[in-house]
From TrEMBL:
GO terms for cellular component: plasma membrane. Residues 237-484 form the CN hydrolase domain. CDD domains: ALP_N-acyl_transferase. It is found in: Cell membrane. InterPro entries: Apolipo_AcylTrfase, C-N_Hydrolase, C-N_Hydrolase_sf, LNT_N. The gene is lnt. This is Apolipoprotein N-acyltransferase. Pathway: Protein modification; lipoprotein biosynthesis (N-acyl transfer). One of its GO terms (molecular function) is N-acyltransferase activity. Belongs to the CN hydrolase family. Apolipoprotein N-acyltransferase subfamily. Its EC number is 2.3.1.269.
């Protein structure tokens, strides 16, 4: 007997169990998203990274309209971002001089915007694919991946980061990256829900993947190996310059004095590393100071690496350009040093104005003040050359992009990242940022030097473990040794492509399965 679409929907509604009231469901979803923050640094309650997506999965399982599924996913995503990225409030209100009420509205709008990723996850999960753990985990990874590029990207709050130091699961990171860790964790979370519903069959895939990751952890394969050269001695300088003073013209000389004073006892080390924009002026304006530092570095056989805004006057065409292009950069100088790295991933509205060209045709909106943006560095940049080694670089926010860091790591012996997290005060933001650096070290099998203005300054080994760490908000020097390593992890060779292929295959099979089931019910 063939059923009409109307009759089928009527039958489904008749069989549908009574669910929670919509308002309560949305509240639970919001709280489930909000609690995820405690799975990440500095709290590191990793079981919450299973509980949080498990609750969303359970809320989406009953039969419901697409609108209801979207609202549940949207509520979850809004809670995730409003609480998980609340550290933005410090930069917006404290250092951006935005009134508190307006800063809170901006955070809420950001949460609503970023929440759309989970809103559409709920919609697609409800309407287009079969409702089971594999499709849920695949959709989860898809939306995490989209956050690395859509609208320039905001790659934060990934489930995989909660397991950075849980090596029974993060052992998958050097094989297939953070998304592989996220996939297994979310699959396990959803499968546990099915287990509670007495549908144990879905646990098979979870157990198999967990067994694989645990086996990798126990076997401890060395994807990369020591280069065979002596470890490199490094001194990471943490100037602790207050953010409200850092860019003041009258404080620039004081900033240079602070860094020069902290460095005075470190000459003779192999590498001295200063943080992002620790020289708060263009290289052309600080040439005298730079020459003095280079002279000292060469006299003591030291490589000096520093963050600095770099103005490329050679690329300036007065007939076509308003001003020379300038970059957020890191430069290697002194003994056995060469190279300049220009930041590729810029912070929207912080380092550049999106759609800046529109202001040229809207002069009244632009006002009389000249708007200048950093230029974007090329993707094809050579590593820095230091002490006979290739040194890969990542500046601040761009270390959150797995693929950008992967490409910068290829052909290098160790890595550095410099940052100025003073924008986020005592919030969890800088510690979440550090956790991402740990994951990047694990993915690429490379040691990381991380020098920051206010913290967290640290040395991280190729397994993502923090070897040395300086206290936050102190003017200090972190000393240690870094090991050069050679070889490529599987992730360095192929990136996210295997995981994305599996995700696409699972979603296609789930879509076809749902379609076939629907046609069978309709008797077609």
């Amino acid at each position: 007997m063939r059923l009409s679409t109307h009759d089928l929907q009527k039958r489904l509604n008749a069989d549908k169990p009574k669910g929670l009231p919509m308002a309560l469901t949305v509240l639970i979803a919001w709280l489930a998203g909000a609690v995820f923050i405690f799975a990440l640094a500095p709290y590191n309650i990793w079981p919450l990274a299973l509980l949080s997506p498990a609750i969303l999965y359970a809320l989406l399982m009953p039969q419901m309209s697409g609108k209801r599924a979207f609202l549940i996913g949207q509520a979850y995503g809004t809670g995730l971002w409003c609480v998980g990225a609340f550290w933005l409030y410090t930069s917006i209100h404290v250092y951006g001089d935005t009134p508190a009420w307006l800063a809170l509205i901006m955070i809420a709008l950001m949460g609503l915007g970023m929440g759309l990723f989970h809103g559409f996850l709920g919609l697609v999960f409800n309407k287009m694919v079969g409702k089971q753990p594999l499709s849920f985990a695949a959709l989860w990874v898809l939306q995490e991946w989209m956050k690395t590029w859509l609208f320039t990207g905001f790659p934060w709050l990934f489930v995989g980061y909660a397991f950075t130091e849980q090596y029974w699961l993060s052992s998958l990171a050097p094989v297939a990256g953070v998304f592989a860790v996220s996939f297994v964790a979310v699959l396990l979370a959803a499968s546990l829900v099915e287990l509670l519903r007495r549908r144990a069959g879905y646990m098979v895939a979870s157990i198999a993947l967990l067994a694989l990751s645990t086996l990798l952890w126990l076997l401890n394969p060395q994807w990369t190996k020591p280069k065979g050269t002596p470890d490199v001695s490094v001194s990471l300088i943490q100037g602790n310059i207050p953010q409200d003073l850092k860019w003041l013209t009258e404080y620039q000389i004081e900033t240079l004095k602070i860094y020069a004073t902290l460095t005075r006892s470190e000459w003779g080390r192999d590498i001295i590393l200063w943080p992002e924009s620790s020289i708060p002026m263009f290289q052309t304006d600080a040439i005298g100071f730079i020459n003095e530092m280079v002279k000292m570095a060469k006299a003591t056989n030291t490589t000096w690496v520093t963050g600095i805004p770099y103005k490329d006057e050679a690329a300036f065409d007065e007939a076509q350009d308003k001003y020379p292009p300038f970059y957020n950069s890191v430069i290697a100088l002194g003994a056995e040093a060469e190279g300049l790295y220009k930041k590729q991933r810029l912070v929207p509205f912080g380092e550049y104005i999106p759609f800046e060209g529109l202001l040229d045709i809207l002069p009244n909106l632009a006002g009389s003040q000249e708007i200048m943006s950093y230029s974007r560095g090329s993707e094809a940049q050579s590593p820095l050359q230091v002490r006979g080694h290739n040194l890969g670089a990542a500046i601040c926010y761009e270390v959150a992009y797995p693929d950008t860091t992967r490409k910068n790591a290829i052909g290098t012996d160790f890595l550095l990242t410099i940052s100025n997290d003073a924008w986020f005060g005592t919030s969890a933001g800088p510690l979440q940022h550090l956790q991402m650096v740990q994951m990047r070290a694990l993915e690429n099998g490379r040691w990381f030097m991380r020098a920051t203005n206010t913290g967290v300054t640290a040395i991280i080994d190729h397994k993502g473990r923090i070897v040395e760490r300086a206290p936050q908000f102190e003017r200090t020097v972190l000393r240690g040794d870094v090991q050069a390593r050679t070889g490529n992890t599987p992730f360095m060779r192929v990136g996210h492509y295997p995981v994305l292929f599996v995700v696409a295959l699972l979603l296609l099979l789930s879509y076809l399965g749902k379609r076939a089931t629907t046609r069978a019910r309709l008797g077609k």
